Amino acid sequence: MSVFRRVRDITVANLNERLEQSQDPVRLIDQFLIETRQEIAEAEKLHHQYAGHTKQLKQQVDQATTMRNKREEQALLALKAGEEHLAKLALQEKMLYDEKIEQYTDLYTQSLESLQELEHQLHELKTEYQVVYSKRQYYYARMETLRLQQRMNQRMNGYGTQDVPKMFNRLEDRVSDMEWEARSLRDLRKAGQDFVNQAGSAIQSTLEQELSRLKQKLNNKGEE
């Protein structure tokens, strides 16, 4: 049976299960470490009190043993001196010390066992703390790696060589449209110029015909 009350909400027994369900294992481990440090402090305080109490009980046993032995020696001396009455008084007191020795020895034994149990539990607490602290370092490193990976993914979102062909395809389409517009305008200008040229040729031909007709008319009048 434990000699001190556990104060932790999280223990090693349920830490692994809660870690699997936690989205922030480092915070959960920190909570465990804080509670464990508090429990270690309480255990150390209780250990100090138990050690002092056990020491006092041992002193009671030692003092009672010394007085019992002393009264027994006094009873022997009284008997040797023929003082039986004094010997009985010494033996009566010796019997009281015998009872005290028995009582305090039982208390001392119980206290010593509890002290040893507490020392064992305190050792287990400190071992748990060290093991979980090492795990905390490992999980912190993993969470930091994950955080940096997420930042990198956010930064690289929308970038990548897979988008380059699409970008150039759009640019190619735009340039092709501009080239088609330019060719269309050039063809339109050429058609217009050809029309002007053709119209000018027709006018010139008509003008030559009219000039020739007038010349012929003049010639005919001259012959008259």
Key attributes of the depicted protein:
coiled coil; PspA_VIPP1; Phage-shock protein; 224 residues; mainly alpha
Give me a quick take on this structure.
This protein has 4 helices and no strands. With about 220 residues, the chain is mainly alpha-helical.
Characterization of this structure:
- The structure is a single chain.
- The chain is an all-alpha fold and 224 residues long.
- Helix content is 89%, strand content 0%.
- Helix 1 packs antiparallel against helix 2 (25-80) and helix 2 runs antiparallel to helix 3.
- The longest helix is centred in the middle third of the chain and has 73 residues, at 84-156.
- The radius of gyration is 58 Å and the shape is rod-shaped.
- The chain starts with 11 loop residues before the first helix and ends with a helix.
- This is Phage-shock protein.
- It holds the Pfam family PspA_IM30.
- It comes from Paenibacillus vini.
Percent of residues in helices comes to over 70%
- Determine the strand fraction and express it as a percent band: under 5%
Task: Profile the largest sheet.
Answer: none
C-alpha geometry: rod-shaped
Could you spell the SSE succession in H and E letters?
HHHH
Family: Belongs to the PspA/Vipp/IM30 family.
Keywords: Coiled coil
Pfam family, one: PspA_IM30
Protein name: Phage-shock protein
What are the SSEs and their pairings?
Blueprint: H1 12-21, H2 25-80, H3 84-156, H4 164-223
Helix pairs in contact: 1-2, 2-3
